[in-house]
Automatic annotation (TrEMBL):
Keyword Transferase recorded: yes
Tree of life domain: Bacteria
Region named Disordered: 1-20
Protein name: Glycosyl transferase family 2
Species in which this protein is naturally found: Caproicibacter fermentans
Length: 742
């Protein structure tokens, strides 16, 4: 095999193939190499995802372990016998090269133990079809997740497949790579990478600190290593150390001026602009980006990041014309990128932050808002047309923009028209649309009323959302008969209930209607979100609910839970300003009684014991303990009452304030009881002293009268018993004196 090396700062090589055998002089097509250490949490999933590829393509798996102390090696042995034990030496390339030197394949694929492929069909087709003979390297997408939800991620085109040629080894102590052999194939297949999520923040910081140390060592050896400057800037972003990010970026850019390398210039500049934006140096961001694109007119994919930050920077300083200029420039680059007209090679040399579909939608949204501020409603409508999608993220942006324009123009027909045009979509999407519409409606009462009028005017009166807006409209008009008619429609409606229809229930309660038939149609999981929605949108929520609860109580279990949720919401609203007056305490006690009743109704009696109740959810534990406390109070069992109140307090912090009031009441009553007891004992002591004196003076009749009065209050007191005995006899005075209590 012959290789011609083309000198460049990015160390790119071109390859020419020999005709020696099907694998051009190699015994197999593919070697897969990995370095691992303590990867037991993720390695099995990683290797399992490679099985289809290894079964379809003649290949081998080489695993280099750098000192695992968990079950990593045992897991690896399930997939390969080729395991190398490597003594770690602070050099990732050295570890990678250990496996590479033992590779027998024509191609070498390397990946990490905490990533796994969603699908390898494209890679399989690449090798089995012979397409691989046209290329010297290949890149797949590494999808780096930023949280465990799986919704937020950054895609990076990782150059992880290279032809194996003589003396072509990994370089760099950290963020290691092989020299790229052109041409390069870009796969759409991607590997999930949860490495930034699986590890704790402390572990991630430790890894970054290690990487920084190794990168700084590389710079000591080679101060002109522009890749190291770029990687250092990315590492310091992890610590949000923007000053240090700027330091390495400016140093790298200065070195690039003397030792030009266009690719690393673009990459480092991206980090620099991002750091300036995060540091709120908005004017400087604009100046630098505009200078860069003016002096270097060759459009690059990375310009999307530049224009994204510039658009947002201009928006922050309210320069809406300038913001729109960069937003439109972003869309031009995005269009060229999607059409495949730009050089993809740049994707291999930077972590792109803003080139996804959702980023484009954010750019469109900001364009729309800027046009709104400029009162250019025609352009806003064009943007809205481009945001016309059922994707939740895009849908939210589009509706928010429509809502803002409707509020600006005081015309809500466009929002209603948007809904009308979407009424034929699947039910699940329709609920999402309704929820998004409700979310973007302003809180201001008049605007919501105007929106209700627009929706109520829609022709489809079999649509529940339209009917709810009719209900809102009639309620505002004060037409009781029309309100009752709309509520009757919902009683007959057989659709699925959600938070969208919270107003139906609120108005039904406001009209003092028995809503049990509504409640029986709704999933209990929806109760709290529905009630939260009522409370959010109705200032008179507390008054309406309190009046309603005075009028209705529910024996039905579902109705009882509805009542509990209503009371709980009100108590949570007022917890900081809990008045602790008689009415408030009665309201809380009734909530506690209902909670206790509900818990007794849904759990078996064997679960409701002090030693087992701890396994119940906190709200149910609260109900159990409050039930126990109230029962103890009725029996005047102060000790049990106090103990269970304290357990209830620990179980449900949301009820901290009212329970604390009960504890304070108890302490006050106990204090008053102690004070009365002390005062009584003090008076009793004085009376006893008087009785002693009377007896010592022989005034037994008078002593007996006083003793009788004291005995009515303290019949079992030992002194009183003795006095009664003495005053009913004619004793010898000396003997009597000797028997007096001391």
């Amino acid at each position: 095999m012959k290789a011609r090396i083309k000198k460049s700062a990015s160390d790119t090589r071109e390859i020419h193939l020999s005709s020696d055998g099907p694998y051009h002089g190699h015994p197999i097509r593919l070697s897969i190499g990995m370095i691992v250490k303590n990867e037991e949490k993720t390695l099995d999933r990683c290797l399992s995802s490679l099985k289809p590829l290894m079964e379809a393509v003649e290949s081998e798996l080489i695993i280099t372990d750098t000192g695992s102390t968990d079950s990593t090696v045992e897991i690896a042995k399930k997939y390969t016998d080729h395991i190398i034990h490597f003594e770690w030496c602070d050099d990732f390339s050295a570890a990678r090269n250990t496996g590479l030197k033992e590779a027998r394949g024509e191609w070498f694929l390397f990946l990490d133990g905490d990533e796994w492929f969603e699908n390898t069909d494209e890679l399989i087709e690449f090798f089995t079809s012979g397409e691989c003979d046209k290329y010297g390297s290949a890149s797949y997408i590494q999808r780096n997740y930023t949280d465990s939800s799986g919704k937020n991620y950054i895609d990076f085109h990782a150059l992880r497949l290279n032809r194996v040629i003589e003396n072509c080894l990994f370089i760099n102590q950290v963020h290691e790579a092989m020299p790229r052999i052109t041409p390069t194939k870009f796969f759409k297949d991607y590997a999930h990478h949860y490495g930034y999520v699986c590890y704790s923040r402390r572990e991630r910081m430790k890894k970054s600190q290690r990487n920084i140390r190794l990168l700084e060592m590389e710079l000591e050896e080679n101060p002109l290593n522009l890749k190291a400057y770029y990687e250092l800037s990315r590492e310091y972003f992890g610590f949000y150390d923007l000053d240090t990010v700027e330091y390495y970026c400016t140093r790298g850019l200065k070195i690039e001026e003397e030792h030009p390398d266009h690719i690393w210039k673009l990459s480092i500049f991206q980090s620099y602009v991002k750091a300036l934006y995060k540091g709120k140096a908005y004017q400087k961001v604009l100046e630098l980006v505009e200078k860069m694109v003016r002096e270097d007119p060759q459009m690059e994919i990375i310009w999307m990041d530049y224009h994204y930050y510039a658009q947002n920077a201009a928006f922050q300083i309210r320069d809406y014309e300038r913001s729109n200029s960069h937003g439109l420039a972003y869309l031009k680059v995005y269009e060229q990128y999607q059409a495949g007209r730009l050089d993809n090679n740049m994707l291999l040399f930077a972590n792109f932050d803003h080139i996804k579909e959702t980023d484009k939608e954010q750019v469109l949204y900001l364009l729309g808002v800027s046009f709104l501020f400029l009162h250019n409603y025609k352009e806003v409508e064009k943007i809205i047309d481009q945001l016309d999608s059922l994707d939740p993220a895009v849908l939210g942006h589009g509706l928010l923009l429509i809502s803002r324009m409707c509020a600006e123009t005081e015309k809500w027909e466009q929002l209603a028209s948007f809904y009308q045009n979407k009424r034929s979509v699947e039910a699940s999407y329709k609920i999402d649309i309704m929820k998004e519409i409700e979310a973007v409606l302003p809180l201001e009462e008049k605007m919501r009323a105007d929106a209700a009028i627009a929706f109520a005017a829609l022709p489809d009166k079999d649509d529940a959302y339209v009917r709810m807006n009719c209900l809102r409209n009639e309620e505002l008009n004060g037409d009781k008969d029309a309100v009752e008619c709309e509520l009757d429609w919902f009683l007959r409606w057989e659709g699925k209930w959600s938070t969208v229809y919270s107003d139906v229930l609120f108005f039904a309660m406001q009209e003092k209607m028995n809503i049990l038939k509504f409640i029986l149609k709704i999933e209990v999981d929806e109760f709290r979100p529905i009630i939260d929605n009522m409370q959010k949108h109705h200032n008179n929520f507390p008054e309406v609910i309190k009046e309603y609860l005075k009028s209705y109580s529910f024996e039905n279990l579902k109705g009882l839970y509805w009542s509990i949720c209503l009371r709980e919401n009100l108590l949570m609203m007022e917890t900081k300003n809990f008045a602790a007056n008689e009415d408030e305490m009665k309201f809380f006690i009734e909530y506690a009684r209902q909670s206790a009743k509900y818990v007794r109704s849904i759990f078996r009696s064997e679960l409701l014991s002090p030693d087992r109740v701890t396994i119940l959810p906190r709200a149910y534990r609260f109900g159990f303990y409050m039930g126990q406390a109230l029962a103890a109070q009725e029996k005047s069992d102060s000790e049990s009452y106090l103990r269970n109140l304290r357990f209830a307090l620990k179980s449900y912090e949301g009820m901290n304030r009212p329970i604390s009031v009960l504890l304070d009441y108890f302490e006050q009553e106990e204090k008053l009881r102690r004070e009365k007891a002390e005062e009584f004992n003090k008076l009793a002591k004085q009376v006893k002293e008087r009785i002693k004196i009377l007896i010592s003076q022989g005034k037994l009749k008078e002593a007996g009268q006083v003793t009788a009065q004291l005995a009515a209050l303290m019949p079992n007191d030992p002194d009183v018993v003795k006095f009664r005995t003495l005053t009913h006899t004619e004793p010898d005075m000396k003997e009597l004196a000797a028997q007096l209590p001391q």
